[in-house]
């Protein structure tokens, strides 16, 4: 009996190790994208720290970084995947915070579960994308203007 317990423990540990390794390997491309985006944000927008990083894939793809500039000012940098588009830099305080957007969503929509809240860009408009499940357990995507918090558009899954 003791022998089986030892064998079972070893198998469980091997399984945990395998799953952990697979997860780390799967997350590596996002980590590398974040590091590359931060490097660009340092050069082109003067960021010193990176607090948050988002990958946004809408009509266009953007890497979005929230961090601090040299004077300690919290900034948001939108780096377009398309090199022909311009980099957008805004002071975080000039827009609605993640907390404020969450409050708007919870008060007006009463979601069952919020999946994610991230920054993005559509048609040169900085925005917050909120993904959540409604009471029918359908995925919903709502978009809010970064500066005003005004609702812009939505997408509902069927």
Percentage of residues in DSSP E strands:
35-45%
* Mean pLDDT figure: 87
Radius of gyration, in Å, reads 20 Å
Largest sheet: 4 strands, antiparallel
Question: From the structure provided, what is the oligomeric state, counting identical versus distinct chains?
Answer: single chain
Residue windows where pLDDT falls under 50 for at least 5 positions? none
Helix content: 25-40%
Structural class: alpha+beta
User: Any idea what the shape is?
Assistant: globular
Distance between the termini: 52 Å
Q: Secondary-structure element order, as H and E?
A: HEEEEHEEEE
Give me the side-by-side strand order of the main sheet: 1-2-3-4
Number of helices: 2
Total DSSP E strands:
8
Write the layout of secondary structure elements.
Layout: H1 2-45, E1 52-57, E2 61-68, E3 74-80, E4 88-91, H2 98-109, E5 113-122, E6 125-133, E7 139-145, E8 151-156
Antiparallel strand pairs: 1-2, 2-3, 3-4, 5-6, 6-7, 7-8
